[in-house]
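queue> pop job 88
queue> type: inverse folding (structure -> sequence)
queue> payload:
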C-alpha cells in the first residue's frame, strides 16, 4: 500500500499543480506524456513519502477495522454476510474506486482553472461526488470511519505543512493559490480527501484477500500432503479431520507422574501430547497396524 500510495499520490497532486490549485516552491518536474508547459508530473521531494505513509495507514486501518467490526457483529448472520461482501471488493470495483478518486482530483482542478464554480459550488459538487462514490464503492462502517478520519486528518496535516513552509521549516514546501475559508486551503479539499478512503481501502482489501487466499491454498496443499483434505475435516467426529487426538496415556499433557512422584515424559506420544486418531483410519483406507505409515503421517503434523 505504501508503494501504491507513493506512486499514485504525486500524480494526483500534479493535477492540482497543472491547473493552478497549488504551487510548490521548489518543484521537481518530469515531462513524461505532458509538455514543458504542462509536465506529466510535478511534485516535491517529500510528497511520495507522505502519500506512501497515508496509503499504509489507510490500508491497515481498513483491514483492522474490518476484522474488529466483523467480530462484533458475528451474532447477526445478516450483518456478517453484508460485511463479508463489502470486505471482498472485485478488481473492477477496486479500479473504479481509484479512477473515481483520480477523476475528483482532475475535475476539481478543472473547475478552479476555468472558474466554472465558486468555492461553495465546488464544495457542494465534491461533497455530492464523495457521498455517491462512498455508497457505491464501499458503504461499510469501517470505510466510513477511515474516510472521515482521512478527510479530517489530511487537511490538518496540510495546514501543518503550509505553516512549516511559511515559517521556513519545510524546504521545498508549497501553498494554495486560493487560501480559501481556512486561510490555508479552500474547504472543497475535504470531500476530495474523503474518497481517498475507499480508493485506498478497497485496494488494501484486495491485496489482503489475495494473500489470504494464497495462504489457504498453501494450507490445503499441506493438508493434502498429510493425507487430509477440506472435505475430510468434519468427516470424523472423534478428531474433526485433524487426524489426531489427545494421548490417552498422559491426557494430552506430554508427561505424567510416575511411581514415586516423578514427572516423566510420555513414551506413548513421544511427549507430543497427541496420537493418531484410530477412529478414522477407514476413511483414508489405511492400515491401523502399519506403524511405519503412522510414523510418517505423524512426522508431517505440526506440533
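queue> result:
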Amino acid at each position: 500500500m505504501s508503494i501504491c500510495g507513493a506512486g499514485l499520490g504525486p500524480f494526483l497532486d500534479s493535477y492540482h499543480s497543472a491547473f493552478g490549485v497549488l504551487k510548490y516552491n521548489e518543484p521537481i518536474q518530469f515531462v513524461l506524456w505532458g509538455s514543458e508547459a504542462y509536465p506529466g508530473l510535478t511534485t516535491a521531494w517529500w510528497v511520495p513519502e507522505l502519500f506512501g505513509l497515508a496509503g499504509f495507514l489507510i490500508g491497515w486501518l481498513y483491514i483492522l477495522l474490518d476484522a474488529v467490526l466483523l467480530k462484533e457483529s458475528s451474532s447477526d448472520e445478516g450483518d456478517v454476510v453484508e460485511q463479508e461482501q463489502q470486505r471482498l471488493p472485485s478488481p473492477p470495483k477496486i479500479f473504479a474506486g481509484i479512477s473515481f478518486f483520480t477523476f475528483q482530483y482532475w475535475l476539481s482542478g478543472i473547475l478552479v482553472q476555468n472558474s466554472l464554480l465558486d468555492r461553495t459550488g465546488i464544495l457542494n459538487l465534491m461533497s455530492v461526488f464523495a457521498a455517491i462514490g462512498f455508497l457505491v464503492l464501499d458503504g461499510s462502517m469501517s470505510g466510513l470511519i477511515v474516510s472521515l478520519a482521512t478527510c479530517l486528518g489530511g487537511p490538518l496535516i496540510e495546514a501543518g505543512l503550509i505553516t512549516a513552509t511559511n515559517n521556513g521549516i519545510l524546504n521545498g514546501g508549497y501553498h494554495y493559490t486560493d487560501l480559501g475559508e481556512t486561510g490555508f486551503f479552500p474547504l472543497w479539499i475535504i470531500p476530495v480527501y474523503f474518497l481517498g478512503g475507499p480508493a485506498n481501502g478497497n485496494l488494501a482489501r484486495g491485496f489482503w484477500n489475495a494473500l489470504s487466499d494464497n495462504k489457504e491454498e498453501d494450507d490445503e496443499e499441506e493438508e493434502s500432503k498429510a493425507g487430509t483434505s477440506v472435505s475430510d475435516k468434519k468427516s470424523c467426529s472423534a478428531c474433526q479431520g485433524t487426524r489426531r487426538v489427545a494421548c490417552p496415556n498422559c491426557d494430552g499433557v506430554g508427561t505424567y507422574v510416575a511411581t514415586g512422584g516423578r514427572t516423566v515424559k510420555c513414551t506413548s506420544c513421544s511427549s507430543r501430547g497427541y496420537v493418531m486418531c484410530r477412529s478414522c483410519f477407514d476413511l483414508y483406507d489405511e492400515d491401523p497396524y502399519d506403524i511405519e505409515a503412522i510414523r510418517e503421517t505423524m512426522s508431517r503434523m505440526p506440533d
